[in-house]
Each structure stands twice: as C-alpha cells, then as structure tokens.
Amino acid sequence: MTDQDLDRASLVTLLARHEAADEKERADLERMRRLAVELERPFSRAQPQAHFTGSAVVVDPSGKRVCLVHHARLGRWLQPGGHVDAVDGGSMQATALREAREETGCRIEPHPSAVGSIDVDVHAIPARPDEPAHEHLDVRFLAVALDPEALRHDPGESLGARWIAWDEALAVATDRSLLRLLRKARHPTTHILRNFR
Prior knowledge:
The protein has helices at residues 3-17, 23-38, 92-104, 166-172, 176-186, 188-191, and strands at residues 50-59, 65-71, 77-78, 81-83, 108-110, 119-125, 134-145, 158-165. By secondary structure, the chain is α+β, with helices and mostly antiparallel strands. Strands 1, 2, 3, 4, 5, 6, 7 and 8 form an 8-stranded mixed β-sheet that branches. The chain is globular, with a radius of gyration of 16 Å. Mean pLDDT is 89; it is low at 192-197.
C-alpha cells in the first residue's frame, strides 16, 4: 500500500464520519466522498478537475472572537486555509492547522472540542494564467490560537488578518458556506460532536 493509498483511506474515513448540516453541504459531502475515491491524485494541485484543501476557523482562547483573513485573490474575508503539502502527512487537519499558522503567525492548535471536521464545502476556483478553472474540495476544522496577540498576516497570501467579534464576522461573511461555517464554529459542540456519536 502506498502513502497515497493511506492518505486516501484516512480521507475516506474522515468524510464517512462527517454529517452535513444543510442541503448544500449534503450535496458537497456526497461529491467529496465520491471524488476522494475516484480522483487519481486527490491531494495534488496538479489534479485538473478538483483537489482537496484544508481550512480552519480560528478562535481566540476566550472563544469570543474569530480570525478572518482578507484573501488577496478573491478580495473577501475568509477563514485561513489552503493546499495539502507533503509535510502534512496525509492529514487534512494537519493541512488546515499548518495553513492557519502560516496565514496568521499564531500558535494554532485543534480546538478542545475538535474531534473531527466541522464543515465541508465544494467551491469553484476561476481560471488564472497559470492554471485552469477547477474546484476546491475543502475540509474545515475548528482551531484555537494560543497567542492571539501574535496575529500578523502573510502579504503573499492575504491583504490583512484580524480578530472579529462573532456578530461582526457574521455580518462581513458574504458567502453562504462561510456563514454556515461560522455559525457552527460559534457553537461547536452542537455541530462537531454529533459527527462522532
């Protein structure tokens, strides 16, 4: 069995345990479950149709604020996240945590209630000169910044990063899937623990 097979098996198990919250997430979850098996290289950016990514909703230790980054290419506030790297060892959670660390400069750990993914989402990525249009199959996790005062942004990734109170974060979220994700993260035990009954 190859490393790719082991990574795929871990992903298939993770998606099998996930429980969707609405019709959009249910449809995305079914598509992701199918593509996790069908795609030749599900974690590779070179996979032309679609590939898996990981992201994290990062909260401060008090749980009263959430960190959003202003995405440079998309021009909107989003949770930190990105592509799978070999260093992640095939773990989607490791991808999400590494990306969150890189994009915020904070020490990021899984949230104490984070026993699995909190959300999944399929979204289209428009074509760019160096790559065709494709889909990101995003597996999302809940995390906590142990040192929120260290927040900084990576200018290569975003136009800014900031801590935002929940009500303001929900107000600036223009994407329905981000709204769903933030609502789940605000009350994590309702949404995460049910995935692991």
